[in-house]
């Protein structure tokens, strides 16, 4: 019978002396001598959750984008005025409450017991200093653009702050609820790597490139939270090893469960798979030159791709067809009759190509070899487009090169991955709005009609009117096809059954998984 | 001897300068904007204003010649710059990672020598017999199995089936020596398997060669016992080429442990370099390549010097 042993480092696996000696013999005399010193295998001490990250966070700067792993870890250190609940609804966080006296003004009342990790109370001055840093001229904050909507930030009293926007912007409140607009201690903002937040944990130690260990604060403002004394993040960049570590019991939770492993993991005793659909795949076009300057040819592509095949082959069924515009499921903006703008219809595709006089289209599809699913999608699309008479060559450079080629418009059309930003239809600006050239949007995209609709939608405070504006936008893009979407892809977490209370947020907000540590505990 | 070393050092310095220049130029010629790659990681959405500000902060908006001059000037002062990703001095990051890779290579080499030399001698002493044939087959097998297959197999057997070892990872020696060594064992063994096979074959071959030499016959003729003949007259003379091959293999392992470090989650230089290349972290890539090349050059220098110490003919020439 194997026993569970623990070590000070919080990792655990099952072993006993007999098994150990058998293993030593198998490896050859002398080779396992160091292991003999280690009866200790990795058993988590009570109250420790070990989470396998897909990458070690390059930094923990509160305002900057440093990848998803950093976002997850930073949730333990930093908190904003607002947050999202499990269903994606905005909730108070450092703010105890807020009101909106008019369509441009927000007034936030801070929690009386909210403190930073240095014990200092969270004040309105801290809020102002943090937001001024985000919107500053030399800011590199991820939500800098969203904060350009702010006209003034005023401290009304030590616990009350008022924000006035230049124009009504309903999505602004969502930027405050996201993790990229945290409040930091105003007295120490000179070094972005040493800013102090008001999160539920403090960083106890870290081994660069390896692990970070956090200890729960005893003075967090929510009673009874965080539920677990210690959270340990360990970087496992290799997908297979991450799965092996979960199966071996080295870790309690893993992120980015590979799609091919989801089914097996969900059927493994003692493990649970939590997944959600947030991120999606889409295709951008070069609108300045090449065959896709004609919207009919773009529509032909949109109708020629059988998205079910992509979900099945590239994502092992862990996804959902997206032949319309990605909008938060269940939101008023997701109008049922506009859900399927580009259903699979190869005959329609052929006739569109004929109408456009483009029956012998030859084009290069840009994707990347860095991410297997990008490459797989490109290969599937190549087959589908060949079926309607389009000859497609694939270009699969490494990711950095692919980004450069995208930014410079060196492609005919390209496979891209994207995701929700704020969970608001204003997120669509990133795909349909004009702006500086970026690999994320079609090259040369500039459609005054779409820009006008997006602008109206962004600043319209009446929900019913917004719904109409975004419905009109969807009808417009159905014909012009500035991009075409392909599918949602699942994002999965593998969780050991001993972990309780760990719940990822809804589809649109699944990138904020770090918040789930507030309530997670181990039995 | 001193003149030889000085000459070799001068050549090494020129080679290091050439490597430094080449890596700088290649990095800047290869497409891929570090800022865009950094800001687009994991679905990030680069804001043009933020990207422009970052480029200014990182000095990437300056002319290439100016960047090169600044790079050489820093290099002359022993400063490898700061990482784009975490703003830490590259030298500090390397100093943290390099010992882990050297430890892995060192452990693998020691294992290989401990296994390879005795088995090589054994095979030579029993040439054509059963043990020689078994070792010949075993070394062929060891050389033909890729390291990543072996590593994956180790994880499957020892971590998932027998559950006697963690699936991979790293714990500092200072935190838990036993766990540290346990975690080192599997990757070191995975690397050592191939190197052991090379050493066995090399040792067998050179020992067989030396056994035919006149001085061995003389040693036997004057009545020395066989173990003494082997130890003093055969193995010592046979070790020169084995040492050379081992040294060269250690050098190539500096860049060749990528897969092993990746599979076992051993946070050494290789994974560090891969991450730096992926993110176009120029200072880190330049630093890692430069340090690795320097180590490789120095290692070869040391092997050459050792070789001349072991072989009087080389010393005389």
Automatic annotation (TrEMBL), chain A:
Pfam families: SBP_bac_5
Keyword entries, A-Z: Signal, Transport
Localization per Swiss-Prot or TrEMBL: Periplasm
Signal peptide: none
Keyword Transport (UniProt): yes
Main subcellular location: periplasm
Coiled coil: none
Domain Solute-binding protein family positions: 90-438
NCBIfam families on file: TAT_signal_seq
Entry-linked PANTHER family: OLIGOPEPTIDE-BINDING PROTEIN APPA, PERIPLASMIC BINDING COMPONENT OF ABC TRANSPORTER
Annotated family: Belongs to the bacterial solute-binding protein 5 family.
Protein name: Peptide/nickel transport system substrate-binding protein
Annotated source species: Bosea robiniae
TrEMBL record, chain B:
InterPro entries: BPD_transp_1_N (IPR045621), MetI-like (IPR000515), MetI-like_sf (IPR035906)
Main location: membrane
UniProt keyword annotations, A-Z: Cell membrane, Membrane, Transmembrane, Transmembrane helix, Transport
CDD domains the UniProt entry points to: TM_PBP2 (cd06261)
Location relative to the cell: Cell membrane
Bilayer topology: Multi-pass membrane protein
Protein name per Swiss-Prot or TrEMBL: Peptide/nickel transport system permease protein
Organism encoding this protein: Bosea robiniae
The organism's taxonomic lineage, starting at the top: Bacteria, Pseudomonadati, Pseudomonadota, Alphaproteobacteria, Hyphomicrobiales
């Amino acid at each position: 019978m194997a026993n569970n042993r623990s070590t000070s480092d919080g990792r655990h696996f099952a072993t006993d002396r007999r098994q150990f000696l058998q293993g030593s013999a198998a490896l050859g005399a002398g080779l396992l001598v160091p292991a003999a010193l280690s009866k200790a295998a990795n058993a988590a001490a009570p109250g420790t959750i070990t989470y396998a990250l897909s990458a070690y966070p390059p930094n923990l700067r509160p305002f900057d984008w440093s990848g998803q792993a950093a976002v997850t870890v930073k949730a333990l250190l930093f908190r904003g005025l607002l947050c999202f609940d499990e269903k994606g609804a905005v909730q108070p966080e450092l703010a105890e409450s807020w009101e909106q006296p008019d369509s441009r003004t927000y007034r936030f009342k801070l929690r009386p017991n909210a403190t930073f990790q240095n014990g200092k109370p969270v004040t309105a001055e801290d809020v102002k200093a943090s937001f001024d840093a985000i919107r500053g001229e030399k800011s590199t904050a991820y939500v800098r653009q969203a904060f350009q909507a702010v006209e003034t930030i005023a401290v009304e009293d030590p616990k009350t702050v008022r924000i006035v926007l230049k124009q009504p912007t309903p999505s602004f409140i969502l930027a405050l609820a996201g993790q990229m607009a945290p409040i930091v201690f105003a007295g120490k903002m000179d070094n972005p790597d040493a800013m102090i937040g008001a999160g539920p944990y403090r960083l106890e130690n870290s081994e660069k490139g390896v692990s970070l260990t956090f200890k729960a604060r005893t003075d967090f403002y929510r009673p009874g939270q965080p539920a677990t004394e210690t959270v340990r993040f360990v970087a496992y960049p290799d997908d297979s090893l991450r799965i092996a570590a979960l199966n071996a019991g080295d870790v309690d939770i893993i992120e980015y469960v590979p799609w091919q492993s989801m089914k097996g993991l969900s059927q493994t005793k003692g493990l649970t798979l939590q997944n959600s659909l947030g991120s999606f795949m889409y295709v951008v076009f070069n609108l300045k030159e090449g065959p896709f300057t004609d919207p009919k040819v773009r529509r032909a592509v949109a109708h020629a791709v059988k998205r079910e095949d992509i979900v099945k082959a590239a994502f092992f069924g862990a996804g959902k067809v997206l032949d319309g515009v990605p909008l938060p499921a269940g939101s008023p903006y997701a109008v049922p009759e506009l859900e399927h703008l580009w259903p699979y219809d190869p005959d329609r595709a052929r006739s569109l190509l004929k109408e456009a006089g483009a029956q012998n289209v030859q084009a290069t599809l840009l994707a990347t070899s860095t991410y297997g699913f990008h490459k797989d999608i490109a290969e599937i699309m190549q087959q589908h487009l060949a079926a309607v008479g389009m000859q497609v060559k694939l270009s699969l450079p490494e990711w950095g090169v692919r980004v450069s080629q995208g930014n410079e418009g060196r492609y005919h059309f390209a496979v891209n991955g994207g995701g929700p930003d704020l969970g608001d239809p204003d997120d669509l600006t990133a795909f349909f709005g004009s702006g500086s050239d970026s690999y994320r949007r079609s090259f040369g995209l500039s459609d005054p009609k779409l820009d006008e609709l997006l602008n109206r939608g962004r600043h319209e405070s009446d929900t019913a009117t917004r719904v109409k504006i975004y419905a009109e936008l969807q009808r417009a893009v159905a014909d012009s096809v500035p991009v075409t979407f392909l599918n949602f892809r699942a994002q999965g977490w593998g969780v050991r059954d001993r972990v309780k209370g760990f719940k990822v947020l809804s589809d649109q907000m699944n990138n904020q998984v770090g918040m789930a540590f507030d309530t997670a505990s181990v039995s | 001897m001193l003149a030889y070393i000085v000459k070799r050092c001068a050549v090494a310095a020129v080679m290091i300068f050439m490597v430094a220049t080449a890596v700088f130029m290649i990095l800047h010629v290869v497409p891929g904007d570090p800022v865009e790659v950094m800001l687009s990681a994991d679905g990030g959405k680069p804001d043009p204003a933020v990207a422009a500000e970052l480029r200014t902060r990182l000095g990437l908006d300056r002319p290439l010649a100016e960047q090169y001059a600044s790079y050489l000037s820093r290099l002359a002062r022993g400063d490898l710059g700061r990482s784009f990703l975490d703003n830490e001095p590259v030298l500090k990051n390397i100093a943290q990672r390099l010992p882990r890779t050297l430890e892995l290579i060192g452990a693998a080499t020691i294992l290989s020598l401990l296994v390879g030399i005795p088995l090589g001698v054994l095979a030579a002493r029993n040439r054509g017999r059963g043990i020689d044939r078994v070792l010949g087959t075993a070394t062929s097998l060891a050389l033909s199995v890729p390291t990543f297959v072996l590593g994956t197999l180790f994880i499957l057997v020892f971590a998932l089936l027998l559950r006697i070892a963690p699936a991979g990872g790293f714990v500092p020696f200072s935190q838990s020596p036993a766990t540290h060594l346990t975690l080192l064992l599997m990757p070191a063994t995975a690397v050592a398997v191939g190197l052991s096979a090379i050493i066995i074959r090399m040792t067998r071959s050179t020992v067989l060669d030396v056994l035919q030499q006149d001085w061995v016959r003389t040693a036997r003729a004057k009545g020395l016992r066989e173990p003494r003949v082997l130890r003093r007259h055969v193995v010592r003379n046979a070790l020169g080429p084995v040492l050379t091959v081992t040294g060269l293999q250690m050098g190539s392992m500096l860049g060749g442990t990528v897969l092993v470090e990746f599979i076992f989650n051993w946070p050494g230089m290789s994974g560090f370099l891969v991450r730096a290349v992926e993110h176009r972290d120029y200072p880190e890539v330049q630093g890692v390549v430069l340090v690795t090349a320097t180590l490789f050059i120095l290692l070869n220098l040391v092997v050459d010097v050792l070789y001349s110490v072991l072989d009087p003919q080389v010393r005389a020439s």
